[in-house]
Specification:
The chain is of the alpha+beta class. Helices cover 34% and strands 24% of the residues. It has one domain: 2-Layer Sandwich (Beta Polymerase, domain 2). It has a six-stranded mixed beta sheet.
Length: 128
């Protein structure tokens, strides 16, 4: 069973909110076949803790306007790896160094990638 339309809509809104705050390398993975508790993992990275916090705040504010509230928030104080659990979607905002180290994409490599709109993909981390 693929991710629900609701989960995909939430993931896209969260990705756009992350992109608005200059998140890098935003990807969404359909984990619905592997996990019972959620449909989509959204992963984004930032260059520093302040940016991690700004991305997290914008995602929460954007989804709150849609009536979607985080069930659980972890790592907010340290702002190195913040996990936001919205039920159908779990958002991981990581400091770029932590993202490389923990390599969530590699752990979930057998899960399909959700195609995100261009405005929801963030930067690639390269300086122009």
């Amino acid at each position: 069973m693929a991710a629900s339309d609701r989960a995909l809509d939430i993931a896209i809104d969260a990705a756009r909110a992350a992109s608005d705050r200059k998140a890098q390398e935003i990807i969404a993975l359909d984990v619905s076949e592997r996990l019972v508790l959620t449909d989509v993992f959204l992963i984004a990275s930032a260059t520093n803790e302040r940016q991690v916090s700004a991305i997290v705040d914008n995602i929460e504010e954007t989804l709150h306007k849609r009536g979607v509230k985080a069930i659980r928030r972890e790592g907010v104080r340290e702002a190195r790896w913040v996990l936001l659990d919205f039920g159908d979607v779990v958002v991981h905002v990581q400091h770029a160094d932590d993202r490389v180290y923990y390599a969530l994409e590699r752990l979930w490599a057998d899960c399909p990638v959700v195609e995100l709109p261009e405005d929801a993909r963030g930067g690639d981390g390269q300086v122009d």
